[in-house]
Amino acid sequence: MAIPLGYNLRSLLVRRAGTALSVLSIGLSVAVLVLVLALARGFQLTLKTTGDAHNIVVLRNGATSEGESGMQRDRFRALRAMPGIAIGEDGAPLASAEVYAALSLDREGGGSANFPLRGVMLESFRIRDSAQIAVGRAFEPGTHEVVVGKALLGRIAGCRLGGALELQGQGWPVVGVIDSGGGAYDSEIWCDVEVFMQELDRPVYGLAVLRRGDPVPDDPDPTDAKDDAFRLTIEGDARFDAETHTEPGYFESQSGLLGDILMIVAYFIAGIMAVGAAFGTAVTLLASLARRTREVGTLLALGFRPWAILVGFLFESLILGLLGGVLGVAIAWPVNGVATGTMNWETFTEQAFAFRITADVVLQAVVFSTAVGVIAGLVPAWRASRLPPSVALRG
After folding, report:
1. Which one has a higher pLDDT value, 69 or 311?
2. Distance CA 249, CA 111 (A)
3. Least enclosed by CB within 10 Å: which of 59, 101, 341, 347?
4. pLDDT in tens, 13-40
């Protein structure tokens, strides 16, 4: 005997008020899930899409981030002279020594936060071709000039072309704006590395960035140096005491902690709301069942088996879950692409990014809402399938 799915669909349409209430309660919990997942996805994508696989980040062995790393000047000179590094148009190796630090700066409108400052050589602009000067010009070496990521414009006091940032007790003129296409460099401030080291009273560089001259190996794991002779040569040289990462691999590793925590928070909050939504949906279906006992009895009298009644009622709750998922995504959709920012817990600096409602976020939302709907329908469906025909027909 077939399952009375047509009857169950018509029942949802006939009982529009209960259907709408159930869909709305599930949809609100799904909307919260989508919002936090979109926050996590935006943060992860901003870091994962930063950089070029031809660029190699060289850190001190054991350092988990740029801020923890250190490199002596003589080590950088030896590293810069290694074979395998790309050569620029001027005949010089494409290698840059850098210093990365988090400094507390005043926000526009009040308050303060840690923002990333990167001291670089001019070679960094040629190595990191994804970070281009969109407006203005690069800083003049030996001066206190800075260039700022476009995501910082209007977020830090004085952060505008022609303005000045208050750093280390003095004004640093803003002469250019970096556009890295939505990458992590859009949230950074760049200045001359030697000037920055003097201001911070640091005798050594923090790290080096190299543009490799040989082809990028076909390595599915960008954080793994195996099968990469160039990186293995650097890591195996005792002079450097270094570990290496591809540029995209390094930034991807920096997205892990906060991204994972946001995912956990998303499901925790949505799960709490889903309990209420599932309970409300179950109560609505049970109330509906109380008014439909004759209908269920008629189906049983017509020869539909109890398991068919069970599946039919579960089908109703599944449809409610699906509709709730679609509604939840629709409620959250306007935030897609909206700029925001949060602290990166790996570097303890402010990271700007945008909410991203991607296909996997939508899929997770729909699966979540469907599960909530089915769980909510288990008890009503079981009770409906256990009604004796004779009792059901008497109402």
Report:
1. 69
2. 33
3. 341
4. 777 888 888 888 889 889 988 988 898 8
Is the pLDDT at 220 greater than 60? The verdict is no
Q: Is the dihedral of CA 128, 131, 136, 142 positive or negative?
A: negative
Going by the DSSP 8-state scheme, the letter that residue 57 receives in this structure is: E
Q: Given pLDDT bands bounded at 50, 70 and 90, which one contains residue 258?
A: low
Name the residue among 342, 364, 333, 366 with its Cα closest to residue 263: 364
- If asked whether residues 41 and 85 sit together in one domain, one would say no
Residue type, 22: S
- Tell me which of 215, 238, 270 is where a domain ends: 215
Q: Assign 204 to helix, strand or coil.
A: coil
Gap between the Cα atoms of 395 and 133, Å rounded: 76
Does residue 223 form part of some domain? no
In a domain? residue 322? yes
Average pLDDT, the chain: 84
pLDDT at 297: 66
Cα–Cα nearest to 98, from 62, 53, 55, 49? 55
Of the chain, the end-to-end C-alpha distance in Å amounts to 24
Number of other CB atoms surrounding residue 219 within 10 Å:
16
Q: Look at residue 385 in the predicted model and tell me its pLDDT.
A: 74
Q: Which residues of 260-282 are buried (b: 16+ CB within 10 A; e: fewer)?
A: eebbeebeeebeebbeebbebbb
Question: 248 lies in a domain?
Answer: no
Beta strand spans in 150-292 (E): 164-167, 170-179, 189-192, 207-211, 242-246
| Nearest CA among 246, 184, 253, 238 for reference residue 210 | 246
Do residues 94 and 177 both lie within one domain? yes
Q: What's the domain count of the chain?
A: 2
Considering just the CA atoms, what is the radius of gyration of the chain in Å?
29
384 or 159, which is more confident: 159
